[in-house]
Amino acid sequence: MAKPTIEPITDANLPDFGAFLADNMPAKRSNEEWASGLKTAWTGTRPNYGFLMKDEGRVVGGIGAYYAERVIRGQVERFCNITSWCVLDSHRKFSMQLAMHVVKQDGYHFTDFSPTKVVAGVLQFLKFASLEDGVAVIPNLPLPSFSGQVIDDPSLIEKVLDAAQLSIWRDHVQFPWLKHLVFGESGHWCYLVYKKGNFKGLPSSRIIYLSNQETFGRYFSKLSWYFFWKGAMTTHVEQRALKTLPRLAMVRTGFNPKQFLSTTLSASDIDYLYSESVALDL
After folding, report:
1. With 80 as the cut, is the pLDDT of residue 17 above it?
2. Which of 5, 22, 81, 265 has the greatest number of CB atoms lying within 10 Å of its CB?
3. Helices 31-38 & 14-24, crossing angle to 10 degrees?
4. Which residues pair with 86 in a beta bridge?
């Protein structure tokens, strides 16, 4: 077998990668849906949409990529989130070379939030670190709470968010599968991004992002009450995002660990905004 070529994914060949993913990924999306999802942009410029592997002109693999600039502890940091890594069985031995084209890009912190067990092993060989995989499952209770309030009206959310959180809101409100709310009280707000889901056949709320651990814990009973009356029986949130584990919570483990690579940031600096976790309806 001749060595395949690897090239950046651009506007010109993105449709080819979209068609490849539509034919080979478990998630059933059209060519256009894959390509449109990868076109999500949060920065003025991006180097590529990832990298494509071809053999005699035929797409045999690829890795998608999202790019974003974030302010972490007062510093502007550049992120590359790896997504939709797919290589045909016939060309799996070249997967490492494909990954190297992504991570050799200078000046980025790298993340992968949906690796398979095999992909996670490859990333760990490339010195990626694993994020804690425990997920707290918290029953939502119909108990009234007189402390704090929940705001889910978009026009009111915008009025209480600070400048940094308002920017996040505006960058993510475009995705219909994401839900947003603010809860707490004046001076102590927690901004929440979540998705609706199901757990054991019952509706649930899966938290993607929370802005303040302390406020989350202090006013969780109000949030739990709100979710219950919205029909969600449980709230799911990663244990690493919590300061303390809420009462009656159980922790699920055993998931394929999410991965990140950085020489300056720690796991506590990593969240799922500006990534495939929000840009795709996973």
Report:
1. yes
2. 81
3. 120
4. 62
pLDDT of residue 12: 96
Q: DSSP states of 101-134 as a string?
A: HHHTSTT-EEEESS--HHHHHHHHHTT-EEPP--
Average pLDDT, the chain: 93
**Residue 42 one-letter amino acid:** W
**Which has the closest alpha carbon to 270: 231, 250, 240?**
240
Mean predicted confidence (pLDDT) in 120-139: 93
Radius of gyration of the chain from its Cα atoms, rounded to whole angstroms: 20
Element holding 280 (H helix, E strand): none
Percent of the chain whose predicted confidence (pLDDT) is above 70: 100
Instruction: Measure the CA angle with vertex 140, ends 135 and 142; round to 5°.
Output: 170
Contact (CB, 8 A) for 203 and 108: no
Q: Which among 12, 11, 31 has a CA at the least distance from the CA of 21?
A: 31
Contact 63, 8 (CB under 8 A): no
Q: Provide the 10 A C-beta neighbour count for residue 154.
A: 11
Enter the tokens of residue 19.
Answer: 């068609």
| Cross-strand bridge partners of residue 75 | 72
In whole angstroms, give the CA distance from residue 19 to residue 32: 8
